[in-house]
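PROTEIN–LIGAND DATA SHEET

This sheet pairs a single protein chain with one bound small molecule, adenosine-5'-triphosphate, given as SMILES. Inputs appear in the order they were entered. The predicted three-dimensional arrangement of chain and ligand is reported afterwards as a token string under its own label.
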Amino acid sequence: MIAPRSDAPYRRAAAEIVEELGGDAERGLGDAQAADRLARLGPNELPAARRRGPLLRFLLQFHNPLIYVLLVSALVTALLGEHVDAVVILGVVLANAVVGFAQESRAEQALAALAAMARTSATVVRDGRRLRVPSADIVVGDLVVVEAGDKVPADLRLVAVSELRVDESALTGESAPVAKDPAPLEEVGLADRRNMAYSGTFATAGQGSGIVVAVGGRTELGLIHRLVGRTAGVQTPLTRKIARFGRVVTVAILALAALTFLIGVLRGRPVAEMLTAAVALAVGAIPEGLPAVVTVTLALGVARMVRRHSIVRRLPAVETLGSTTVICTDKTGTLTHNEMTVTQVAADGRVYEVTGTGYAPEGSIAHAGGPARPGDHPVLHACLTAGLACNDAQIVREGDRWGPVGDPTEAALVASAAKAGIDTVPERVDTITFTSERQYMATLHADGTVYVKGSMERVLRMCGDRLTGDGGREPIDHGELTALAEGLAEQGLRVLAFARAELDPGTARFDAEPPALTFLGLQAMHDPPRQAAADAVRACRTAGIQVKMITGDHAATARAIGERIGLGGPEPLRVMTGAELAATGDEELPAAAERAEVFARVSPEQKLRLVKALQSRSHVVAMTGDGVNDAPALKQADIGVAMGRSGTEVAKEAADMILTDDDFASIEAAVEEGRGVFDNLVKFIVWALPANVGLGLLLMAAVVTGGQLPILPVQVLWLNMTAVLILGLPFAVEPRDPDIMRRPPRDPSLPLITRMRAAQILLVSAILLAGAYGLFHYEHGVASEAVARTVVVNVFALTLMTYMFNCLSLDRPILLRGVRRNPWVAVGAVALIGVQLCYTYAPVMHEVFGSAPLGGTAWLRAIAVALISYVLVELFKAAYRDSTGAVSRTRRPTLP
Ligand SMILES: Nc1ncnc2c1ncn2[C@@H]1O[C@H](COP(=O)(O)OP(=O)(O)OP(=O)(O)O)[C@@H](O)[C@H]1O
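PREDICTION REPORTED AS:
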């Protein structure tokens, strides 16, 4: 890949590099020094993929078969001496390009803004203090700290590590994490990649620190990036499908236009007239605006989701969200606030009540109605001390509130210890960190004491006896303690168990596992459920979406919280534990996974199995996760959702969507937006296509029956420029249907345009054909050709207007309510009437477009067609609604 150079940083001693870069391997750079380097050398960003310049993007708007047709026809028209027509066509082509350019730029801007939001942050040491800064602000010489879950923000020459493992697959394709083991500061050591951590890779375990040797485009990732030059597109499966549909239709219509031309000429009609007919046909029938509308609607949907706290990382997720059938969610932080407060402590056979709220170290500990001074309750004292000793968190005062720094579970233990006046512990010399798999944490202190805390099951297994009030020990009764813990968990409390052991003072390290322990007690903490989450769960149930809780917590805690959030509705919750999951074979798992609402004591690996099991039952699964080990499940899920606040960079990178507020309600909101985007697209397409089909049919009918052309190319262009744009616009800002979350999820295998919608499109096309063709011949009999053509244009414009009202809901009549919900509908209607009056009466329009003034009865006839169309479509919708009876009624998804 990249030839190793003799001066490559991994071939040099870290100390030498630190000196050369003017850094400090302990205190890092100074703030001012870092700011200066940032200003001088620029941000730590990969050079943006070279974007096409605005001029090129504008010119590309002309790269479109329809535009070619128009340009050729402008040329032919000019050669025929019709200069006005030629200019009109060119004007329309230009306007079309401007509109397309503007829409595309808007979509790209929305997506660029998103990319900026999804940027990562990193930990640096500056002036001896650790800070979290945007990765872009990192400069060469910075001392960077990475921990499990972090993305390495720049190329680092490592100076110190502790069990650091790095997933370098982004760089090397090798998926097994690489153990990092740099040479000491002054040495070169093995002179290989183990000395380094590279930008764009992920720390999957342990931690380490290193000096930044390269940033941005100068990192190894940057070099590769330059070689590959990837450009991120705005395409999704849907936009691709629509673009393909557009291409097929375009080719078909061009062929049809050529055929029409040939038939006409063979029948002896003038070539110029047939050319005009063919051009009008091509212009009228090709749905040229469709792909742009789809892209813009998706981009607008993405922008709305940001306002509702979800950042979509991959555009296709917007489409998938609308068809989500199952949401698997974490408990802590997503369904609850992740604000832990210890409310009860069980020690020495007693249960103590702890008062106080939040993380404030203010409150008291009471037993049997009286205060319990820790001095009189040595086991209680030992249990609270263990909570403070085996702990990496702090509580800090912010204004008049106390907040946690670090793991909220641990911060709660700091607060409970403080309430008993315990605030110091012996110096710590070694640690076994907590992981969800390990389920405990252990610390070794200078006086030889080992403190352990973790889940009840795990800690009890390590305990041989328990501490008694007189300082002695007695055998433990597992059954009794388990019952005690479950009693607390059933109240929805998160229960941690505490234990300790004594080693020889001066022991410096843990051997593999902690020794046999003495049980101290339990602390149970309250984590208030989120009210918004409960509402959102209810909304999901109504929308036919199952919500499942997946948690590492105890089954009883999970069940109690699940009940409070309303996961099972009125029915009792079905809980499956990780152990049951492990005992269930791949064949039975899908059915079991579908049945249960709560999965407790589940490991991240089991999440992956669960997603696959649900998908095997044709579910579209959204899954949340925040840890390093959640990444595979997030990738496997149809919608991987990472937590913006608590999530690791690894999880965010694997996810399709990031919640900025970690709240379950935001997932529900995103699903709602996803459904809305889809709905609006369908509405727009169902509304827009009849104009194309109707115009195509009208022109073919005229040529086949040998009559005069009922509409000229410039008049078709007029309709495209006015009616289609003015009336199409309100669809872009159309609010979601109020009953959008009362429908079942969309079946992703269904086509965008179902049979019923296709029938509706054909119905309106037929009305347009009959109305325009009939009135053209009638008017032609009593008035001039110009008048007859003006009537045809007005029939199209007015019918598209009444049809817009039909399409505001695809299944319910909502004429007035629709206007109140979306005032742009009224604006569009009034504007359209305005421009049509201008078209009909302004002399300049007569010149340019060949229109003519209409009398009152001609207007009435055109209006009649529009109204008849409105009524017929409403009847059609009603008939369809009655025949299925399904549309707006709640329906639970049918479970096999
Ligand atoms: N910092 C910690 N130290 C020791 N034990 C812990 C710690 N945090 C949690 N535990 C114990 O481990 C169990 C599992 O915790 P874990 O963090 O895996 O659940 P969780 O992933 O937070 O739950 P959720 O999936 O709902 O977010 C908890 O029930 C608790 O008993």
